[in-house]
From TrEMBL:
Residues 12-238 form the GH16 domain. Keywords: Apoplast, Cell wall, Cell wall biogenesis/degradation, Disulfide bond, Glycosidase, Hydrolase, Secreted, Signal, Transferase. The active site is at 122 (nucleophile), 126 (proton donor). It comes from Arachis hypogaea (Peanut). The keyword Amino-acid biosynthesis does not apply. GO terms for biological process: cell wall biogenesis; cell wall organization; xyloglucan metabolic process. Residues 1-18 form the signal peptide. It is found in: Secreted, Cell wall; Secreted, Extracellular space, Apoplast. This is Xyloglucan endotransglucosylase/hydrolase. Transmembrane segments: none annotated. Contains at least one intrachain disulfide bond essential for its enzymatic activity. The lineage of its organism: Eukaryota, Viridiplantae, Streptophyta, Embryophyta, Tracheophyta. It comes from the Eukaryota.
Length: 303
């Protein structure tokens, strides 16, 4: 108990010890999306929907259903949903660690890597750790039948947020249906990945995961800066867990959820406007615009 209390104390005070990064180059927040899909889905108790996957000694749940996970030089930690899903809305409110976090990944994602090792699908929200005075990078990614051995085809879009994600909880979500994947931050759509073919879209059931781990080889400026355990523990907090939709065991009549008022899916004009604003002002990388990529492998970028 003393260790858990110390971790939470360090997390609470550490933001005052480091230089503040600049999070909004434009000084403005996105326009209202006009619709808030997170309000449609109930929050769940962590243990009703999830279980520890690894690093149980680096994971603690408080009386307010807020989960704390942390990384030190001995281990990180991760959790996994009890059920697999074939579509749904998946979200959590997350507060990130301040200061030097280079090499550290805090993640919330969908995957079936345990069911299909070496040939899995994945939909990622990843926070790439950073150095003093620089903002976190939020990376969204989609893998389809990836091998994870160097031939995997990433579909990354990266953003610098319009707020400091270490100051408070913010809600991050993935809406996955048979037609599209939509990534949302505080109900603002930041990316829509439509299904253009079965070869470029994940269709097999996936579980919901969260984790914190050392990815020094690539996470921060392509591995230039590594995790520095003089600043351990690196702490992430998750709460307001949501996982609602069609489980892998649901009837075939189960109707996919939507991120908009339209039952058929898609986004409203106002949601598209908000998304385009974020991409114009806060997107820092788009794989479809990278001339170093072989776009024969990403046909969804063609049209």
């Amino acid at each position: 108990m003393m260790m858990k209390a110390l971790l939470l104390f360090l997390f609470a005070i550490s933001s005052s010890l480091f230089m503040e990064p600049c999070y909004s180059s434009s000084g403005y927040w996105p326009p209202s999306p006009g619709y808030w899909p997170s309000h449609k889905f109930r929050s769940m108790n962590f243990y009703k929907g999830f279980r520890n996957l690894w690093g149980p000694q680096h994971q603690a749940l408080d009386n307010n259903n807020a989960l704390t996970i942390w990384l030190d030089r001995t281990s990180g930690s991760g959790f996994k949903s009890v059920r697999p899903f074939r579509s749904g809305y998946f979200g959590a409110s997350i507060k990130l660690h301040p200061g030097y976090t280079a090499g550290v990944i805090t993640a919330f994602y969908l995957s079936n890597n345990e069911a299909h090792p070496g040939f899995h699908d994945e939909v990622d929200i990843e926070f790439l750790g950073t150095t003093f005075g620089k903002p976190y990078t939020l990376q969204t990614n989609v893998y389809i039948r990836g091998s994870g051995d160097g031939t995997i085809i990433g579909r990354e879009m990266k953003f610098h947020l319009w707020f400091d994600p270490t100051k408070d909880f913010h809600h991050y979500a993935i809406l996955w249906s048979p037609k599209e994947i939509i990534f949302l931050v505080d109900d603002v759509p930041i990316r829509r990945y439509p299904r253009k073919s079965a070869y470029t879209f994940p269709l097999r059931p996936m579980w919901v995961y969260g984790s914190i781990w050392d990815a020094s080889s690539w996470a921060t400026e392509d591995g230039k800066y590594k995790a520095d355990y003089r600043y351990q523990p690196f702490v992430a907090r998750y709460t307001n867990f949501k996982a609602s939709g069609c489980s892998a065991y649901a009837s075939r009549w189960c109707h996919p959820v939507s991120a908009s008022p339209y039952r058929s899916g898609g986004l409203t004009r106002q949601q598209y406007w908000a998304m385009r604003w974020v991409q114009r002002h806060h997107m820092v990388y788009n794989y479809c615009q990278d001339p170093k990529r072989d776009h024969r492998l990403t046909p969804e970028c063609w049209g």
